[in-house]
Write a structure and sequence with these properties.
Helix content is 41%, strand content 22%. It has 294 residues and is of the alpha/beta class.
C-alpha cells in the first residue's frame, strides 16, 4: 500500500500545534497566520483520513490519532534540526562522544585538547568522565578510554599507554620514609583494586603490611587526599606530573609496578566512524610523540 505524499509544511504545522495546543501559538512560532496553520492541519487530516484535533471552545485537544503522530514528528524534526546544526561555515561538524577515565582525562587529555581542536576543527568532541565503569551501548558512547588489561566483553581495544604505580605523598610525610618498610607506620590510601599495594611491596622486596586505609574509586580523589596529608597514595605518576612538578606530591621511592594500561575501546558491533578513526589516530600519534620526547 503506497503512502500519500505528505506536505512538509502541514506536518510542521501539526507538530507545532500539538506542542502548543493552539493554532495561534503555532503560527507565532512558524511566522505564519493562525488561518494558515489551521488550513495546513485540515489538509493533513484530509490526506490521512483522520481527525487529529478536537476543536474546543478554548483551544485544542489531540485525538488518539493525533497523540500517536505527534511524538513521532517531534522526534523527527528534533533529529533533523540537530543534524542541520552540525553544518557550520560550509562544513559538516561530526559529533564524537567519548567517555574517559577521570585520571587520564585530567592527567593527559585535557592539557592536549587544544592540539586536538587545532587538528580537527570540525569535530565536536563531547567528553564524559567515569571511574572505569562504563556502558558503551547504554550510554550512547562512540568509544571509551579505560584502565585495565584490555579484555572487556564485546569490545575492541587499542592499548594507549602504561600507567606504572608508585607511592606519592606530601614532602613532610616523605621525610619520614627511608625504607619501604617504613610505609607500615603511615596510612596507605588504596583503590578498589585490592592487589595494588601487595604487588608494589613485592616489587620493592618488602613485606606488605595490613592495608586499612581509606578506599577510593578514583585516583584523582585519592591523590587529592594524599596532597592534603591523609596518607600515602599509590598513583600512576605519569598522570600526576603537574602535582609532582609543583611539589604538592613527591615520590619517596622510585619503585613502580605495572597493574594495567589505558585503552581506547569501542563496541565490536559498531563500525568506526570517521570521527572515531580521527580520534584514535590523533591519540596514538600524540602518545608516540610523548614517548619519543621522554
Amino acid at each position: 500500500m503506497s503512502r500519500p505524499n505528505l506536505p512538509l509544511n502541514a506536518l510542521r504545522a501539526f507538530e507545532a500545534s500539538a506542542r502548543h495546543l493552539s493554532f495561534t501559538q503555532a503560527g507565532l512560532e512558524l511566522c505564519v497566520t493562525q488561518a494558515a496553520i489551521s488550513h495546513h492541519v485540515k489538509s493533513l487530516e484530509e490526506i490521512l483520513g483522520v481527525q487529529l484535533f478536537r476543536r474546543l471552545p478554548r483551544g485544542l485537544a489531540l485525538t488518539d490519532e493525533g497523540l500517536a503522530l505527534a511524538p513521532a514528528l517531534h522526534d523527527a524534526f528534533r533529529r533533523i534540526g540537530a543534524t542541520l546544526d552540525q553544518f557550520q561555515g560550509g562544513h559538516f561538524r561530526e559529533v564524537l562522544t567519548v567517555a574517559v577515565v577521570g585520571t587520564f582525562a585530567v592527567g593527559w587529555l585535557l592539557p592536549r585538547l587544544r592540539q586536538f581542536r587545532d587538528a580537527y576543527p570540525f569535530l565536536d568532541l563531547r567528553l564524559l568522565t567515569h571511574n572505569n565503569r562504563v556502558d558503551l551501548a547504554g550510554e550512547g558512547l562512540d568509544c571509551a578510554i579505560r584502565f585495565g588489561d584490555g579484555a572487556w566483553h564485546g569490545t575492541e581495544a587499542v592499548r594507549l599507554t602504561g600507567a606504572p604505580l608508585s607511592p606519592c605523598c606530601i614532602p613532610r610525610l616523605a621525610e619520614t620514609l627511608r625504607r619501604p618498610e617504613d610505609l607500615a607506620q603511615v596510612p596507605l590510601l588504596r583503590s578498589y583494586r585490592a592487589d595494588e599495594w601487595p604487588r608494589w611491596f613485592a616489587a620493592a622486596g618488602a613485606p606488605c603490611p595490613p592495608i586499612r586505609g581509606i578506599v577510593f574509586d578514583s585516583s584523582l580523589t585519592m591523590a587529592e587526599a594524599a596532597a592534603q596529608g591523609e596518607g600515602v597514595a599509590l598513583l600512576p605518576t605519569a598522570m600526576f606530573g603537574r602535582d609532582l612538578g609543583l611539589g604538592r606530591l613527591v615520590q619517596p621511592f622510585a619503585t613502580a609496578v605495572d597493574t594495567g594500561s589505558y585503552w581506547l575501546t569501542w563496541l565490536k558491533s559498531q563500525s568506526p566512524t570517521p570521527a572515531m578513526d580521527a580520534f584514535r589516530t590523533w591519540l596514538l600519534a600524540a602518545l608516540a610523540r610523548d614517548t619519543a620526547a621522554a
